[in-house]
Design goal:
This protein is mainly β and about 270 residues long. It is about 10% helix and about 35% strand. Strands 8, 11, 13, 14, 15, 17, 19 and 20 form an 8-stranded antiparallel β-sheet that branches. It has a 4-stranded antiparallel β-sheet with strand order 3-2-5-6, with no helix packed on it. The structure holds zinc ion (ZN).
């Protein structure tokens, strides 16, 4: 007589073999509109967010961004070492946006003429190309430092009314600093653009790995060139009042590829989501 397992045990055995533990995943407790999200999934081989493949560092670090109007839900897909995908639904908490009215701007800055529009379109293409940069070292995971210290004079997401005309929302953080204040790189990375642009004046972009980019606008001086590697806190120029401004300040932008995210929550002492 051959030994036979009781029926229940025979059924349970394949289930035990198939049930591998889910990937360990660390994400911020609360994720809001406009968030740069830094996640950790040490066992993950690859990740995808909203149809885009994400780089995952050997330590399991990855990043993605949520736009101003994202949500109420987003989908993150992680693949373990066996190639098995796990889908995680992410709740995106809504935010309240301010209305910002700016008056007294030169008319040509609010409604550019045809020549200006040609220049703006060409610049936009170069900005888009810089924001497609995707390098493997996750400098963003080391945290961000303030590029300059000052009063916050404009926040991310506010609806803008320029000279009484509704315009695109303000997708950056304004820091009121005078002309010539030293400007420091918010994190390590590579300069992907260093150029005088129509709206943002002297403008620097630095990519910090995995498509995470910071933008520094209205500079009086740029001390780094395109392609240069920089470290966190390294002097890269000076703040100013170039481009479309009503006064000197630093406009700090942050992107995950083409998506504008809010730099404030990831800066030291910034508002918690
Ligand atoms: Zn601004």
């Amino acid at each position: 007589m051959t030994h036979r397992l009781p029926r229940r045990a025979a059924l349970a055995l394949p289930a035990l073999i198939l049930a591998r533990p889910a990937l360990a995943l660390t994400l911020p407790e609360r994720i809001t509109q406009g968030a740069l999200v830094i996640g950790r999934a040490p066992g993950a081989r690859s990740a995808g967010f909203e149809g885009r493949t994400l780089r995952v560092s050997p330590e399991g670090v990855f990043a993605f961004g949520l736009g101003r109007d994202a949500g109420p839900e987003a989908t993150l897909t992680l693949t373990n070492r066996d190639g098995r995908p796990e889908v995680r639904r992410i709740a995106v908490a809504p935010r309240h946006w301010d209305i910002q009215r700016l008056n007294g701007l030169p008319g040509r800055m609010v409604s550019p003429n045809a020549d200006d529009m040609n220049r703006i379109r060409a610049e936009q293409e170069r900005l888009n190309a810089a924001r497609r940069t995707d390098t493997p070292i996750p400098h963003f995971a080391e945290g961000f430092a303030w590029p300059a210290q000052g009063r916050i004079s404009g926040v991310y997401g506010s609806q803008r009314i320029l000279n009484g005309q509704p315009r695109a929302p303000h997708l950056g953080l304004d820091v009121a600093v005078g002309v010539g204040t030293p400007l420091l790189a918010a994190a390590g990375g590579r300069v992907t653009l260093a150029e005088d642009l129509y709206f943002t004046g002297n403008t620097l972009l630095i990519e910090h790995g995995h498509g995470v980019t910071t933008l520094y606008a209205h500079l009086s001086r740029m001390d780094v060139r395109e392609g240069q590697e920089v470290g966190r806190g390294q002097p890269i120029g000076a703040t100013g009042a170039t481009g479309r401004v009503t006064g000197p300040h630093l406009h700090l932008g942050m992107f995950w590829f083409a998506t504008s995210v809010d730099p404030h929550p990831v800066l030291p002492g910034g508002p918690q989501p």
